[in-house]
Design goal:
By secondary structure, the chain is an alpha/beta fold. The protein is built from 9 helices and 9 strands. Strands 1, 2, 3, 4, 5, 6, 7, 8 and 9 form a 9-stranded parallel sheet that branches. The longest helix is centred in the N-terminal third of the chain and has 24 residues. It starts with a helix and ends with a helix.
Amino acid sequence: MMWGVFFIMNKYTEFLKSFNKSVLSARRDIEEIELIAVSKKKSIDIISEVINLGCVSFGENQIQEIDKKWEHLKKQHLAAKLHFIGGIQSRKLKRIFETCEAIHSIDRIKIVKLVKDLENETGTKKDYFIQVNTGDEHQKYGVSLNKSEEFISECIDDYNLDVKGLMCIPPLNENPLLHFKRLNSLGKNFNLPYLSMGMSNDYDIAIKCGSTHVRIGSKIFGERE
């Protein structure tokens, strides 16, 4: 366990240096950018170490993982904030809504309607991001790019959903710059304040393109086991 603690400390410290350098290079204010540590498949002990090092925002993509770890973690670390970053199954949305402060993957009206029902039931709102499939990849979640403006308008105007921003995951075999610029332009069309874009392999490009939320896994926790 002691070796694991030192490994995480070194990885996190090393990443923060690169992160700060990228922010400075982009002439951005670091306070504008929320660092989300993607903690899927990581243990309670490892996540706790990252919290102790100063990170408070975490991303998970499966409700089973959240139920397994985060009730305990949030009791121990009151400032911890949880972002849901995976595809949403309608039958699991209630638990996602109950356990997460932000949802990055709104991508269909069925989910929007269920979110509004949950808001009415509980009297609470979350930070909502619409996931845009900027590469129109059939295997990925997200509203297709050519339907994105219509979908965003419908969410805001017809359902009064308090959309905070947009999220994307660029295709692996393409330059992410084009996709980040697309998302930035789309967000500006609707005066949305947040852009959730950039992961371990491309966060520096995302920061230059205006990202406000970067989702970092391997650069903090190491490669997946």
